Amino acid sequence: MEREVSQVETMGAMMIPAWEDRHSRSFGMVETLGTPLDPVAFDPEAIFEDAAAIREARLYMVNRRITRQGMEKAGIRFDPDKRRLVFPVYDGEGHLYGFTGRTILPKEQLTYMRADGTPVTLPKVLDYANLPKRLLILGEHRWQKGRGTVIVEGLFAYARFLSEDVDAHFNVGALLGSELTPGKAAILRKWGNPVYLILDPDDAGDAGIFGKVFEAGRDPQTGEPIMERDVTTGALYQLADHVLTYVPQYPDGVLDPDDLTLEQVLTMCRAAMPVPKPQPPRRRRGHPGGSRY
Known about the structure:
By secondary structure, the chain is α+β, with helices and mostly antiparallel strands. It has two domains: 1-31 and 133-293, Dna Topoisomerase Vi A Subunit, Chain: A, domain 2 (3-Layer(aba) Sandwich), CATH 3.40.1360; 35-131, DNA primase, catalytic core, N-terminal domain (DNA primase DNAg catalytic core, N-terminal domain, Alpha-Beta Complex), CATH 3.90.980.10. It has helices at residues 44-47, 55-63, 68-74, 155-163, 182-191, 203-210, 235-239, 262-271; strands at residues 24-25, 28-29, 49-50, 77-79, 84-90, 96-103, 111-113, 119-121, 125-128, 149-152, 171-174, 195-197, 212-218, 225-230, 245-246.
């Protein structure tokens, strides 16, 4: 699947050293992480079960081609009460800040009725211990300086990449969503490593990379909505002036990062070219916005 990106031969002359503080941006301050969790009171191995030892959890992972080694690398545990696979989330220094859990229940079991007849739908993903998700990237505690960093969206894409041993060639991190928040961008700029954005090949993934799409107005002749992309909300805008940033193209026929093999990921990253920082469209007088979709 091809994404529309501008390719350049080199970004060397455009780079800005990533000396900024971990929790700051060149255009403002962002939130800071608070106190990490007590590593004894919140020891993942003490408060959750070994996912590989629980048959239903193990089968769930096997069906998604997540290996025992991948589970161990990700530190995946199991919450038997909530029936969730639990991922501990650390900062780059190895401090634990919380957990995020993905249900193993089938979709039809996520909705139940209260006594008053009100339906309640359980979320597929549930965070634990007030996880400050906007300020963390899953897997950062395993990164090394000087290695390219592959960024995916979700828990299972992360676990799949570890199962495929992508981490033998790159740092691997998950945004825990499709949005690169200011806090997450600050982490990537702080490390200064090249970044390869392998987000889901869908509208949400494109918004995460290139910026969110919004309705800027209506065409005065047809009345149709004029759609523009706010590039300042995308990962490229936040990263490309600070670190080499790539948007690898998915192979034909692959529509899910969970389906990528190690060889495909390596081929994608080798073929990718650095992408320059996108510029917001200039507004024209009497026109609601810049480029159209």
